[in-house]
Protein 1
Amino acid sequence: MSLREDRDVTRGELADLEVVRERLAREPGELTPHRVAQALRGSGRPVGDETVLRVHEALRRDVLGAGPLDPLLRVEGVTDVLVNGPERVYLDRGQGLELTSVRFPDEEAVRRLAQRLAASGGRRLDDASPQVDLRLVDGTRFHCVLAPIARPGTLISLRVPRARGFSVEELLAAGALTRESARLVRAIVGARLAFLVSGGTGSGKTTLLAALLGTVDPGERLVLVEDSSELRPAHPHVVALESRPPNIEGAGEVDLRTLVRQALRMRPDRLVVGEVRGAEVVDLLAALNTGHQGGCGTLHANSAADVSARVEALALAGGLGRDAVHSQLGAALDVVLHLDRASDGRRQLREVAMPERSPDGLVSMVTAWRLAPDGAASEFGPAAARLADRLGGGGGFAEPGVSR
């Protein structure tokens, strides 16, 4: 759909939008079809009711919600809407990025939409503060960087929350899990092992974590800590804390590290950090080392093997020394579940790994199970026997050479 040539606004009517917008700006008031008609006729151009209604709807979208992006946000299964300047708008509904027909009239229209969305979240977005990351009222995560810092124009990223989280069965049907990996992850959760879900951006970490939390015993209390509220586990006892950025005056910030500490005082059966991205990893490791079994979270990493280095870098920034980081990591973490995108764009659980401490005290991740390159078969790794022992045979998982 395009503001230039879609069925809502014709090419001729597009020129009227700016005229009407300027006139309405000079005379503040509610946006109604009657006022739009007055503004159009005041420009000297005779118009019919159909034209008035189309221009009114275009203006309404431009001043409410996500403007011309609203229809894309309502597409079934959409997870992301991405704006690369006025000419290229993409969406992702699970099969990779798709170029849409949505266009903006010009760079100023993109910038105006971005600034309005930022203002709706109480944030400033201008040349002095050209980037913003926040959650909108409906739960959509909004990120923007203004041009000319961004090319080919202002860049907008909208992450759409799912009203209801996926179940493990739905992920199995979608190909994100195989029958074997579905049994395995259920067993990991049931055994109350501490785990991290790793993967790149958009690999499905939050989706898998929410599905796994839905399998937790209903009698357990889940305390979620998130930078931006995205987890929607189907569980009867969930409480959540969400971080808060500084306001326009630079005050009022509540960071994840503070919230992790608060969560520990809320009697969690499972402490969940939606995304570990900073110094809060220090408090999470400490929590997992003090009897909070089954804790979990997500972490950006290119592979399971990279998780140790990623945790080390974050913890060092949080003031924990290298030896202490690896000591805590080896004692706190039981399993890493690594996700990646297949060549066809599908998100898949590709590897399950376990931490192993070397004689020098450093921790590395060793494969217990991995999905074969064909995406169907599975392969055991060196840590398979250890994982089977931790699970006690749960989920039908066994060490190599043992019938399953």
Protein 2
Amino acid sequence: MPHHPAPNPAGLPPFPDREWARRAMTILQGDGRRSADTHLVNPSFRGLKGISIYLKDESTHPTGSLKHRLARSLFLYGICNGRILQGTTLVEASSGSTAVSEAYFAELLGLPFIAVMPRETSRQKVEAIERYGGRCHFVDQADQIYSTAAEIAENAGGYYLDQFTYAERATDWRGNNNIAESIFNQMAEEPHPQPRWVVMSAGTGGTAATLGRFIRYRNFDTRLCVADVEHSAFFDAYVSQDRGVKCATGSRIEGVGRPRVEPSFIPEVIDYMIKIPDVLSIAAMRVLSRRLFRRVGGSTGTNFFAQCWIADQMMKAGEEGSIVSLICDSGERYTSTYYNDDWLRARGMDVAPYCEILEDFLDTGSSFADLPQVSCPPANRIPM
């Protein structure tokens, strides 16, 4: 008769990592249910005849920014791939907002968290990370954050969350209540339910990738415009079709613009890009803040100026329709920088004349004049 080994009297082995992962997933799913959606704001600008502006207000997430969605997705990605376990030290390279959101989730799960950030990151963001129990490690050059974060994670035996690589793959771009699906669901009963344009500035490039893929997947007659900022490699890479482009100076608009082309930046799903001088981003930020009666951040100014620029082009062409973008975070994080006139003067930026031009445009529809050059791709540019 064949020999059968005696059964293990202790039974099957325990699976503590799986049990911890199950508890962690329950916690993350609970956060998702509580903060699943945000308002779609539709401010009225009487000068924009036939053009409706919408802004999805991501500043109302528990951690105050669009990056709350990304952080939750990165945690889900790490746990489901077996890379985040009980006690894992988490490390991230960030200009601030992503790290704030990740520190929040790390605290929920009882995990150590270290943020590697440029030294000039706003003090309000640093304080928020520390309030959630995270630690901050500062570097002097923006392009040092990647290698420093990877080194700290390796030395700690931890996990580098790496938003710049995993942002575009950690989010289900086909739907599953991602930001793109939410926008189009909220637009369903509006006068122009399919936006003529969706506008997004690029930090990791992941949100733009999600939007572009979802638009194509659902076969919408909508175009995606990505707005880049002054000190950033994205626009030049889009135009030159060279992912090796670098920018020696770090972005002054926190949360967007990068010194290199990040892995999550997917130019093939972008219909158009423009590059906006920082002074216009900040002017647009201040104008929109006055119109909404509350402060928004600098990257929202980038988005809003791009919306105004596209609206101007559409009105010149006699087109009507809706243009949708995001309020990325609150301006309260930037009281010592973008809302500080001394800070702006020290950097040679006088936003007052451009605020007046934008106010006049929103009230009367008068076309832009006397603005610093907005860079546009050549007409014959083909996708990378």
